[in-house]
Amino acid sequence: MLKHYVKVALRLIKRSFLFSSINMLGFVVGMTAAFLIYLWIVDELTFEDFNKNRNEIYRVIREIEHADGQVPSTVTQLSGIFRKDFPKVENATFVKYSSTDDFHYGDDFIVAKLAYVDTTFFDVFDFPVIAGDPKLMKKDPQQIVISEETAKRMFGNASAVGKEIIHNFWREQRPYKIAAVLKVPRKSHIQFDVLIGWNSFLSYNKEDENNWGWSERMHVYVQLKKGLKLTDTDRQMMRNLWVDRSQWGKPLDLQPLADIHLHTTFKEPDDVCNHGNMQQVYLFAVLASLIIFMGAFNFTTLSTARASQRFKEIGIRKVTGAKRKMLISQFLSESLVQAFLALLLALALTELLLPLFNRFVGKDIGLMFSWETLLFVLFGILGVGCLAGAFPAFYMSSVNPLLALKGGKTTGKKGALIKGLVCVQFVIAITMIIGTMITFKQLHYLQNADVGVNTENLVVVDVDDWREESIPYKQEVLKNPYVESIAIGVDLSDFLQGYRWETSKFSWQDGAGKVDSLEMVGLVGDKDFFQTLGLELLKGEVLEADPDKFWSGAYGVTPIVINETAWRMLKVENPVGMILNGGPFLSGRGTSRIIGIVKDFNYQPLREKIRPVFMYYTNQLLDKMYVKISPGKQAETLKFLKEKYEEMRPNHLFVPQLFKNVLKNNYAREQQLSQMFLIFTVLAIIVAMMGVFGLVALSTAQRTKEIGIRKVNGAHSDRIVRMFCLEYMRWVGIAFVIACPVGYLFMDRWLSNFAYRVAIGWWLFPLAGLIILSVTILTVVVQVWRAASRNPVTSLRYE
Amino acid sequence: MIRAINLTKVFRTESVETTALNGINLEINEGEFLAIMGPSGCGKSTLLNLLGLLDNPTDGELWFLGQEVSKHTENSRTDLRNGNIGFVFQSFNLIDELTVFENVELPLLYAGVSMKERVERVNAALDRMQIAHRSEHFPQQLSGGQQQRVAIARAIVTNPHIVLADEPTGNLDSVNGNEVMNLLTELNREGTTVVMVTHSEENARMAGRLIRMIDGNILTESRK
């Protein structure tokens, strides 16, 4: 019997090739989209899976005072304590992220992201080894490990293992030997170019060995014994490990390694590349289901609409002894056969589209057969086939054999279902267009909004370990007529996370004599910082950048400039000249004096509300040089900057960045979201239009006689085309009315994630409706015109 | 074999009520060849459909092989039909996607007959209808006469007690029409009960018994 069903299904595809193709194409596009999303979701869910002990590894996080809750930075000493004091713990290790430094091999330079690691690092993590043996680092502090990409940059295709490279650190040249080349998987939250052993770091910085307060960019990991789980009691016992041992200590918690990518609720520091978001995973799962449904709806509507062409067959089968359930099985198997063929095509299409898709989403997903893929294939055929085939199967098999033999009858119910499903498709498509337009609008806003900083023609140069010695370079460069101004200060673009030492608490007595306090984020900049970045001074004066004065205490108190938000929160009418208790961490606290107020500017992504800021000067934290270049003189000025840099700082690479581009990178998540939205909206529109195409083709075929009679009675072709268009316009209209509030509510909720957001804009809605309407009318006109302009005599004879 | 008592069929639409059969009493015995004649719309096809268990009467009793079937569900009517009743239609009603062999095989497939037996019985039926050489062709590749022979082969492949034919020669030229009538007569001679609706007096004369209908009633009945 099954053979019979399959045979009939295949012959049916051959006989009505157009409809079967539309049916299957809907499936193919739907399944391809769903497959791509599925692969993306699997990829998101399998971060850190290269680690054999993925389920036993935890990251140590600590609580912080202000609202952000937690940060993953702790101290190196914890690693040894976890190893020693907890029998459940198999191992513990840490990573200390460092700056982006220059390395050279002979005359070749590269800039590489450096991190220091504990000797146990490679016992806990399993970064795939390309060449060499990373464990050599344990015994010999001079042995280091580099990433595959770094090896390529430095040595091309030649072997890197055993080669000696020089690390330019500060004014020192530190020689190292490459022990191994590793692959750093994209799905690792720990990303590095070069790893150096902590013992090597200590050999240069002995005083840091017992520093219980130095948690900057230091991440500790714990690995439990195989099969053991962390209990609440364990967490309680580990909670006060640090607090008990040091005045700098904070309560600790442990976060499973597998949760880092998607379930991190606090803001990650910049060192951790982590753009995962569980909400986005849910969102795309819903999108995938919607597109699959749309493909399935096409099948349902077309098969149901086509039922009348099969009534004779149904009648014959019933008369010759087929029971209803046999017919249901037959029709379901037809949809399963089509779903199966569509799946094969979808797999091929997915394979073809993957490189493009990967480029869009910044991944390197491959199509490999695993149990997940097989599961998807099974679900694809059974789920989609049954979903799509169920209604037509039940509908067609219910027809009375006598009526069926006479050609059946059309019932109102069937028409309502088809219209309903087409409407649902339109609703999905319009909602997705609205969603896409709003995400793009918001992205454009995020990337181009006036953040209160003049980002035009601003070049950023890394002076991280050059510090005040970069000042002669600054003076030299200023001689160039195209360099308008130069500032040195904090790394603004990376300033996303407030570490303990980057926020300070200030207190003062208010008018009533009560002590009030405010936590402010500290930003470092010299006196040119304000002018170069276009910060507007509202009151008072800018910082006088005099390092000698700063350190000699000539100011008496630390001069600070606050922002508008801080001014508001101080609740003082004119705070210029006001003395506050507290100050920047490096100045040893003491007191500070407000010397000026600057207009609010966004120094954090626009997802965040502007927090109170105090700006001060210290030569210890000069990370970046900001060079303002005359408009249109970028190329030659950059060349000049490079020449001077290489001349004044030999053996270092000059890596300038445009501040505008740096800012754009902050919105990688939004960019990815909007691009994925765009891809799947286009696919959804294609699927919906294929459905419309099929339905129109079918109704023109079924209404050939009607068209003929109308024409014989005087109707013009354009009138007939208009008649068909009006019918579909009504459906688009109904869908539009439903899609608008759905789209609005959905996108309004999404936008509420941002402290700064675009207005949704009423015109987006009619535009979305108009897009669907025009594509629909185009689809209808192209087809109906042919049928309507045919000679009525032929139409009637044909009928 | 079949007994109809006061058989009534009324078709209702929202505004119109049409009485197609108006209290028909009829008995058909095994081995009979019955022809039903009458003008268009007199209810003869409706009667044939009720006798063939394709539809339920609005009122009255219908006995088929000793069972009262007027209230049977579609599924149980299908069960009863299967293997007991064969149908031949004016417009042949072959499935275009199936070959001649597969069309004839269909009733056996639905009856759950094994493949080996199916092949034997289909080949036998095709041989009997002298169309075996066309078994791999599709219906559109055959002439009308050939198609009707395939339809008859399908009707008899289950060795039914009764074959119901609704204007079996209506779409055929006289040569092919005669051939089909000869086949039906031969079937009847071999013991199959045949009930045929026809417009042709000539065809009706070949039957052993003839009833004439008008407006849902039996007008006359005659036997050879």
Automatic annotation (TrEMBL), chain A:
Keywords: Cell membrane, Membrane, Transmembrane, Transmembrane helix. It comes from the Bacteria. The keyword Flavoprotein does not apply. Residues 20-236 form the MacB-like periplasmic core domain. It is a multi-pass membrane protein. The chain crosses the membrane at residues 21-41, 281-305, 326-354, 374-395, 416-440, 676-701, 728-747, 759-782. It is found in: Cell membrane. Residues 286-401, 679-792 form the ABC3 transporter permease C-terminal domain. This is ABC transporter permease.
Automatic annotation (TrEMBL), chain B:
Pfam families: ABC_tran. It comes from the Bacteria. Signal peptide: none annotated. Residues 2-224 form the ABC transporter domain. Keywords: ATP-binding, Nucleotide-binding, Transport. Gene3D superfamilies: P-loop containing nucleotide triphosphate hydrolases. One of its GO terms (molecular function) is ATP binding. This is ABC transporter ATP-binding protein. The lineage of its organism: Bacteria, Pseudomonadati, Bacteroidota, Bacteroidia, Bacteroidales.
